[in-house]
Amino acid sequence: DNALHVSHPALLLQGRHVVHVRARMPEAPEQVSAPASVQAVVDLVPPELTLRAERAAGRLDAVAHDTVSPDAALQWAYRVGEGALTAWGEARVIDLAAVEAAGGVEVHVRDEVGHAATARWRPPAVAVRAEAAEGDAASSGSGSAGCSAVSGAPLLMAGLLLAGARRKKKRTNS
Asked: pTM score > 0.85 for this model?
């Protein structure tokens, strides 16, 4: 095994480290070679990734940061809706209307050593009121269509107020 194993507490810190290596030859042990510098990268965690919808601008912002790799070195991949994952490359602008129409987007980002993070964005669920077709409204003789319901909350509140007033009146009369 020609590998050199280096162990030092400083190498437990995330970041880029430079290790200077010198050699002694068996035939001349009193001589030391010129130092050779080797860069070692210690990166233990994936980048942090957040997605934020910017409705006014019509885009979905993907922001990533890694503690070791510069932001410009991060690689990105995307899956729109149920489609295939794109090839890794530079960050792209995400069109909000396009990903809403497709049902969402999955964003992947990886750092220089290969640690990856994933975030998913789905469009918010919207309640849709069912409307009857024009023919249905005309045949019923009614000018309105669809479902109609009165909320029970105002009636409940009025009942509670009346019950409270009656209870208070009973106490003052006793």
From this structure: no
